[in-house]
Amino acid sequence: MINITTPLTEDVRKNLKAGDEVLLTGTILTARDAAHKRLSDSLKKGKKIPLNLKDAVIYYCGPTPPRPGKAIGSCGPTTSSRMDPFTPDLIRLGLGGMIGKGDRSDEVISAIKRHKCVYFLAIGGIGALLSTKVKSARVILYNDLGPEAIYKLEVKDFPLLVGIDSKGRDLYAKVRRKNK
Q: How far apart are CA 46 and CA 36, in angstroms?
């Protein structure tokens, strides 16, 4: 396991390889479909978005409400490809990494490679276990979206795989080639 922390600087990103197992500690943001659309709409209108994405990590997740004494409810990953229409614009703003599940479009992979970003995979179906790695959670933007609001999470030893590294090496493509 490779221990990494946020902010996810280019020096950290360039040393990760597709297939690496990592434990991520630090601040991450959540954002799903509706939040991505709002951010994209702001950019299309020439407005500055209300987030600093430089070296940030966005987790494609819509957490459930926390049980008493917990920071967050279940927080498993959602399918990343739903964010693909909006992702290249956010990567251009300096986004350092994304966390989700599933493969990505050619356009997103190209943006990852061009801007030296990283796409991490979180294991679906273990949202309750992942929630134990979240030390605090609070809504920071778009509260009206409920679970699709943008949350700021503090995580410790959040388990991930590097799905696409900063050189564009894609774990899904590697597995497809191996299985031919």
A: 16
Partners of 88 in the β-ladder: none
Residues 1-58 have pLDDT tens digits of 999 999 999 999 999 999 999 999 999 999 999 999 999 999 999 999 999 999 999 9
Cβ atoms of 104 and 81 within 8 Å: the answer is yes
Predicted model pTM: 0.94
Provide DSSP, 121-170: E--TT-HHHHHTTEEEEEEEE-GGGGGGSEEEEEEEEEEEEEEE-TT--B
The whole-angstrom separation of Cα 119 and Cα 109 is: 9
How far apart CA 129 and CA 114 sit, in angstroms, is 34
